Amino acid sequence: MNAIVIVQPGPPNVLQVQDRPIPGPGEDEVLIKVFAAGVNRPDVAQRKGVYPPPPGAPVDVPGLEVAGIIEACGESVKRWKKGDSVCALIAGGGYAEYTVANALHCLPVPDGWSFAQACSLPETVFTVWHNLFQRGRLQAGENVLIHGGSSGIGITAIQLAIAFGANVFATAGSEEKCNACLSLGAEICINYKTQDFEELLKSRGVDVILDMIGGDYIPKNIRLLKPDGRLVFINAMKGAESAFSVSDIMRRRLTITGSTLRNRETEFKAQLAAEVEKQVWPLIKNKQFKSVIYREFPLAEAAAAHSLMESSEHIGKIVLVNG
Ligand SMILES: NC(=O)c1ccc[n+]([C@@H]2O[C@H](COP(=O)([O-])OP(=O)(O)OC[C@H]3O[C@@H](n4cnc5c(N)ncnc54)[C@H](OP(=O)(O)O)[C@@H]3O)[C@@H](O)[C@H]2O)c1
Questions:
Q1: For the structural domain made of 2-120+262-321, what CATH number should be given?
Q2: pLDDT, tens digit (0-9, with 9 covering 90-100), for 10-69
Q3: Which of 15, 78, 128, 132 is paired with 279 by a 20 to 30 Å CA distance?
Q4: Closest ligand 1 atom, CA of 309?
Q5: Which atom of ligand 1 lies at the shortest distance from residue 173's CA?
Q6: Mind listing the pLDDT tens digit for each residue in 267-285?
């Protein structure tokens, strides 16, 4: 099969097509013929050599989410059979014509959704569900601030927060990106290149912040949080270290938390998949949640897809398609 291999850490052109053996499914896994694979910022970090895959994951083929048709099932797989259309969360290996996934990390392709749309769901929806709702405990009526609102994660977080009744504020890097966030239902979107989000939001206050930026956003986030507010980190692209006042945390009883999905244990991801299917799949069915695909690339053009992601020109998801 064709697979996109990171031949060495480096720029996008280190992603090259190679011939690799089709993997075999383990006892509790399915083999998926991949029709589409999502591109995520962590794949870029892996390509650069700064985000190594966890033990057991494919070492040099990136790709954290796919959609396709099941080709074969391991002996203990009960829910799925050959021919079923699924999307799946995987710890690597998605940029290929075939991949294996734990059967409990697969969900059905929503009715009427293409493989390209379905592959854009697992990494972002699982990440947002866990961080915004499980760790961040976002409630209806609360104010939530989503940094990077036009990212793959951001468009997912905005839609889910709105579907669950929160008031959504976002940041993004251009007027066009802000308009995209507003059109998804955000009440306020701040162009962080021209405006200070802390200044603009301090009169409202925020209950939950989903942050992937870090750096100088950290003390601003903390100052913005209302009493009992929650700050949830999923990355720190501007830097992981910062000075802030612990007095603020004590006085307003703030919670600072965060997580990374890829290295979590199999059982955790299975429980998360079940929760996502119960909570989010009905929203997709009711058209309260839609895919936002910025551009599709053929699998062989993965390097161009990474260049686009690093340009940050995109709004929403970038996907690779096969066949
Ligand atoms: N912890 C986890 O489990 C987990 C899982 C998946 C993804 N992530 C992280 O989540 C983030 C989003 O991932 P993705 O795949 O959705 O990537 P993406 O679409 O490339 O998103 C990155 C976003 O950051 C925005 N950005 C950059 N600097 C900013 C700033 N100073 N203020 C506000 N926004 C800024 C970019 O927009 P502009 O350039 O226009 O500002 C872009 O929208 C990444 O950092 C990724 O590593 C974490």
A1: 3.90.180.10
A2: 999 999 999 999 999 999 999 999 999 999 999 999 999 999 999 999 999 999 999 999
A3: 78
A4: 20
A5: 40
A6: 999 999 999 999 999 999 9
